[in-house]
Design brief:
Layout (H helix, E strand, L loop, with lengths): L7 H9 L4 H20 L2 H8 L5 E6 L2 E7 L5 E3 L8 E5 L4 H9 L6 E5 L1 H13 L4 H9 L1 H28 L3 H4 L10
Parallel strand pairs: 1-4
Antiparallel strand pairs: 1-2, 2-3, 4-5
Helix pairs in contact: 6-7
Length: about 190
């Protein structure tokens, strides 16, 4: 039986492929802008980060790494290259499939945490409580009703995907349980 992940080719490709420095730089900058956009939607999140201003968080997943500096505004920016991190967050699961399954199940992927305990607690609070209001942002672009409709469709698709992933491993073991019963025979 083949136990390799269907995403193993992506892992090998990611370890061999190194994007140009400008792509990495632009991608990190866009990620910082997105994080700040989400942080600005929740004042409590900014207040929590404000307590740890000047701290540096090093985030790593496989070959991807990012150093974030907490600004005096309670937002994040990319830290200078020579910065010493106060907190290290390393996603332990190398497989993108494991990370996606964890996220779809509503759980955080397995993470190795080292460093400042209080900063780790603030980041954990953010991970548990901070959510991107996609529908609100979408409504600014296309209006309230279409944004609400698209959001509902996305929620239904995500729920269907979660249900599919939850049933996938057990469906092969119990074929007879999923077969509908035969209808009763009519009396003559």
């Amino acid at each position: 039986m083949n136990n390799t992940s269907p995403f193993s080719f992506l892992q090998s490709l990611a370890t061999r492929f190194q994007p140009p420095a400008w792509v990495v730089d632009e991608g990190q900058q866009k990620l910082v802008l997105f994080l700040n956009h989400v942080l600005m939607q929740e004042k409590e999140a900014q207040n929590r980060l404000l307590r740890k201003k000047g701290s540096v968080i090093h985030v790593r997943w496989g070959v991807f790494a990012l150093d974030l500096l907490i600004t005096p505004a309670g937002l994040v920016d990319r830290a200078p290259a020579a910065s010493k991190p106060d907190l290290l967050l390393a996603v332990v699961a190398e497989s993108p499939a494991v990370v996606v399954q964890s996220v779809l199940a509503g759980k955080a992927p397995p993470v190795k945490i080292e460093g400042d305990v209080q900063l780790a607690a603030e980041v954990a609070w953010l991970a548990d409580n901070l959510r991107w209001d996609v529908e609100e942002d979408l409504s600014r672009l296309i209006g309230d009703v279409p944004a609400h409709t698209l959001s509902n469709l996305a929620r239904q698709a995500l729920a269907g995907l979660r249900q599919f992933l939850a049933q996938a491993p057990s469906s092969s073991t119990s074929v007879s349980a999923s077969t509908p019963p035969e209808p009763p025979k009519a009396a003559s």
